[in-house]
User: What shape does this take?
Amino acid sequence: MSDWLGIRDRVYVVTGGSSGIGLAIVRELLAVGAKVANFDIKDSDLKDDRLLFIQTDVTSHEAVKASVAKVLEHFGSIDGLVNNAGINIPSLLVDTREPRGPYELDEAKFDRMMAINVKGLFFVSQEVSRILAEKKSGVIVNMASEAGLEGSEGQSIYSATKGAVYSLTRSWAKELAKHNIRVVGIAPGIMEETGLRTLAYETALAYTRGKTVDELREGYGNTSTIPLGRSGKLSEVADFVLYVLSDKASYITGVTTNVAGGKTRG
Assistant: This one.
């Protein structure tokens, strides 16, 4: 693949890079010759001399600081960050069918989603920003979601965490611009199936929406709300991430862009 983006040999940290969108981003960065540090709990089967896996709990500030230090020791520098790690635990605010049951929100679920999706994003952004500010250059990409603006039935806390990502993106872009650091959000829409769509996840989401798992799965194929008429590909999100990381997007900061086939509220 040609290096028209000019990011060959640059060093990028990707959180949650072992599966789903994160893995697609890691693959494409490697394909254009970039160096990648993957911060995740579990490793993937992807192996490359330019890929460094560092087992990282992003909810631990000490773990994040240690992981960033390992990147600097191994690659010598950091040029950008993709905050992709996230978790979604479908749950209802109030479950009238089974009060305080397994599909009703509780403090543990709330804390888990907030810890990974918001606190973890803060910890990694802060530590990487220290490096980028010294260099007076760099890019931070935050993975948001359409749910962060529109809300989502059975996914209220997940939606709230992604709403926070929108706000943090705008605020940090204003703060970090003086250091020549850009901060950009990306909000994927309905995407092709990945290994993250587990039976447990589908069962919980179907319950919160009063459907069976089969009915939920039938809905995956309904693309009537998407003007382009199809689900998105993981590679299409990764392509946009690479563009935003590159100097081709040098005047783009403080915004969150949907990669959603034209899908909007209307």
